[in-house]
Amino acid sequence: MKNLNLLENGDLSKIKGIQGRYLNFMDYTLENPKKLIFLTITVLIFIQTIYLKLGKGFEFFPPIEPDYAEIVIHARGNFSALEKDNIVKKIEKEVLKNLSIKNLYSRSGIVKGDKRNESEDVIGSIKIELIDWKKRPKAKYVIEELKQSTKKFPGIYIEFIEKQDGPPKDKDVEIEIVNNNAKKLFIDTSVLYTFLKNKSWVQNIDTDLNIPGVEWELSIDRVKAEKQGVDIEMISNSVQMLTHGLKVTDFMPTDSNEEVDIVIRFDKAFRTLDELDKIFIEGKNGPVSLSSFIKRNAKKKIGNISRYNLQRSKTIKFDVIEGELPSNKVNELRQWLINENLSSKVIFTGQEEDQVEAKIFLTKAFFIAIFLITIILIATFNSFYFCLIILSAIIFSTIGVMIGLLISGKPFGIIMSGIGVIALAGIVVNNNIVLLDTYKELRKKGEDIKSAILRTGAQRLRPVLLTTLTTFFGLVPMAIGLNINFIELQLNFNSPSSQWWLQLSNAIVFGVMFSFVLTLVVTPCLIMIGETSKFFKSF
């Protein structure tokens, strides 16, 4: 009670306890306010630089424990639909032995309309749903078990993909190589693909480079065919009989709404290229061998031709191993590309493109919020300098955010940490508004500058401390991954739902702790500089 009376209009030197020690410290700092501000700016620059050098970098969305995964099966060869299905069935049986699998859906072949941009050698995929996260090991251990159990299938490459929450994505890194010169495009894509394939941090690499193969081109000598009285349609029908079959009519089953094609072709034993030399078709002078006016030429298989913004392109996609950030590896790739000097243009799309867009959006949102805060502050305090003090506090509060990231060893999340910084700005602004409003009231009562600053800090010490502590302890459960299930009356740590909010809550928790020091030490020094400087006082 005695301290309360002294805080209102008594002798500040007689105040004891925490407030007394705070006043002694502030009395010293207000003698050299510029040194403290210079030190704060130095710390801000130093911490930002340290994080850029030693921090974990940046990531788009926080990694969440997945409930789903996909197994993509690659195999090269001219497999029929039944052969592909048989391979997928064998892998499916092996996968079902794992006790962590709840549901499973498999398909073989290429499904029309599938959103996945698959490579040509994909013969099927298996989508799995895992049991509840509390009753199984982490998804990475389940997938590792599946990798070991499916190693016994020779000649097959099996790709395991964890399904992450957040915006839809195919792989961690997606690269478009663009060049209208097909030869240079192939060479540059092959160089980049070979480089990535030899990197230990690359997994599940995929590309739409053409698979090596041979295509047979049939050339028809129309002059010879005309002499024999054979038309092109007859030749075409004979070749179709040998390959995929000749459609003769349609049939409408009674239990279906769609027609079924009726196709005829040679028996499997006679569906070979050599049979072209043995086929005879009817000409005007009798049967004539098909080979007399058809030549077979072996050509390199072309595959698919894809374009990106009207230019020919090839795609390389891959995931990075656990513990590595895609953004860091993209920066490493950019440095390699500068030294390699490829003739093709290399564009990073997918998650990297989304991350850049999110950065731009959140930056705009942050500055819009700052602009609105500025208008309100100028209207309230009628002083540009007081407005500048509050806005500088927002910038200084990021020191706490970066310190928190360095201590926790976590990357800066573009989405969640970015939203946390914007939310932190509101808390910092509130504390500084209360401080400045109290200072203005004391100045109106006739207090001198230094005394008003000291009395303001001492009076607002307890409210600012309580605001900081309530925010801190309110967010600590979220920051440590504690999840309270009120329906089942359970306490869970690191549940998938709580992992969403770790980055946001950590940004606010560490930021608000530093803003406590900022509000009670740095802001008073800024007030002192402004009130004693003729330049700033004019604002």
Layout: helices, strands, pairs:
Layout: H1 2-9, H2 17-29, H3 33-54, E1 58-59, E2 68-74, H4 81-96, E3 101-108, E4 122-130, H5 139-149, E5 157-162, E6 173-178, H6 182-197, E7 202-207, E8 214-220, H7 222-227, H8 232-242, E9 246-251, E10 260-264, E11 280-283, E12 286-289, E13 294-300, E14 306-308, E15 311-320, H9 326-340, E16 345-349, H10 351-381, H11 384-408, E17 412-413, H12 416-444, H13 449-479, E18 482-485, E19 490-493, H14 496-499, H15 502-532, H16 534-537
Parallel strand pairs: 1-17
Antiparallel strand pairs: 2-4, 2-5, 3-4, 6-15, 6-16, 7-15, 8-13, 9-10, 11-12, 14-15, 18-19
Helix pairs in contact: 2-13, 3-11, 3-15, 10-11, 10-12, 11-12, 11-15, 12-13, 12-15, 13-15
Give structural notes:
The chain starts with a helix and ends with a helix. The protein has helices spanning 2-9, 17-29, 33-54, 81-96, 139-149, 182-197, 222-227, 232-242, 326-340, 351-381, 384-408, 416-444, 449-479, 496-499, 502-532, 534-537, and strands at residues 58-59, 68-74, 101-108, 122-130, 157-162, 173-178, 202-207, 214-220, 246-251, 260-264, 280-283, 286-289, 294-300, 306-308, 311-320, 345-349, 412-413, 482-485, 490-493. By secondary structure, it is of the alpha+beta class. It is 51% helix and 19% strand. The mean pLDDT is 83. It is built from 16 helices and 19 strands. Strands 6, 7, 14, 15 and 16 form a five-stranded antiparallel β-sheet that branches. A four-stranded antiparallel β-sheet has the order 3-4-2-5, with helices on one face. A hairpin with a 2-residue loop joins β11 (280-283) and β12 (286-289).
